[in-house]
From TrEMBL:
It comes from the Bacteria. InterPro entries: Class-IV_PLP-Dep_Aminotrnsfr (IPR050571), P-loop_NTPase (IPR027417). Belongs to the class-IV pyridoxal-phosphate-dependent aminotransferase family. Keywords: Hydrolase. It comes from Congregibacter variabilis. This is HAD family hydrolase. One of its GO terms (molecular function) is hydrolase activity. The lineage of its organism: Bacteria, Pseudomonadati, Pseudomonadota, Gammaproteobacteria, Cellvibrionales. PANTHER family: AMINO-ACID AMINOTRANSFERASE, AMINODEOXYCHORISMATE LYASE. It holds the Pfam family Sulfotransfer_5.
Length: 245
């Protein structure tokens, strides 16, 4: 079987789980949820919600995980939801060359505000902006072209057209089933789902902004504003390449 390995690289508090739902609703697709999470927690010692369950649910050796991602053949399309903060300094990223790498971005201040509601103390490194930018630049250099980039807001405003374009870039057919899914948890969700996935568990599709409704302003602390300023440049560079409806 020829397998299309689609790796979607995102920071936390994005629409990454909704995007995983979208692909899982395809009849030709299998998904995997944040396969490097345990390796990341083991290496960093970060005290995330459900830490012990995460550590026992996956291999803590990133090399073992990477080998499985490159060799397993669960379906013709193998969608891998990755968090860019899980990219560790000692990782040899050569394994990513076996994937079609895509990048999901979101406005930094909204990521920071959302993340702070779950974990109060965190560094910019824990949000994956620098790691995402570095992998994006690596892919651009390797391919000699820009890999697919999706922006959360642009995707939510016109999911059908954005997903059509993405599928075209992936050389797979667009499936209308990608636009909606049943509410609730899935067996494919990581054990951390109860701590992070309340919104997506309540969803049945991509929640488009209500027409005419002004988006709520995001208020950050001074320290969070400093993080936002540092992350903004990387976000804006990638945003210029985002697929638009």
């Amino acid at each position: 079987m020829t397998v299309r390995r689609v790796a979607m690289w995102s920071g936390p508090r994005n629409i990454s789980t909704a995007m995983m739902r979208s692909f899982e609703n395809r009849s030709d697709c299998a998904v995997i949820d944040e396969p490097f999470y345990a390796a990341y927690l083991a290496a960093t010692g970060h005290d995330h919600p459900g830490r012990s369950q995460v550590l026992s649910s996956q291999s803590q050796d990133w090399r073992t995980v990477a080998d499985a991602l490159c060799t397993e053949e669960p379906a013709p399309v193998y969608y891998q939801k990755h968090m860019t903060q899980h990219i560790l300094p000692d990782m040899d990223l050569a394994f990513t060359e076996q994937f079609t790498n895509c990048f999901l971005v979101r406005e930094p201040r909204r990521i920071i505000a959302s993340y702070a509601r779950v974990r109060e103390d965190f560094s910019l490194d824990e949000l994956g902006f620098a790691q995402q930018a570095a992998l994006f630049e690596r892919e651009c250099d390797r391919l000699g072209a820009v890999p697919p980039v999706l922006d959360a807001a642009l995707t939510l405003s016109n999911p059908r057209d954005v997903l059509r374009q993405l599928c075209s870039r992936l050389s797979i057919a667009f499936d209308e089933g990608m636009l909606s899914w049943p509410a609730g948890p899935r067996e494919s969700d990581g054990v951390w789902g109860p701590h992070w996935y309340a919104s997506v568990w309540a969803s049945t599709g991509f929640a488009a902004p209500v027409q005419g409704q002004k988006e709520e302003a995001v208020v950050l602390s001074a320290a969070q504003e400093a993080l936002c300023t540092e992350a903004q440049r990387s976000y804006e560079i990638m945003l210029t390449h985002a697929l638009r409806g």
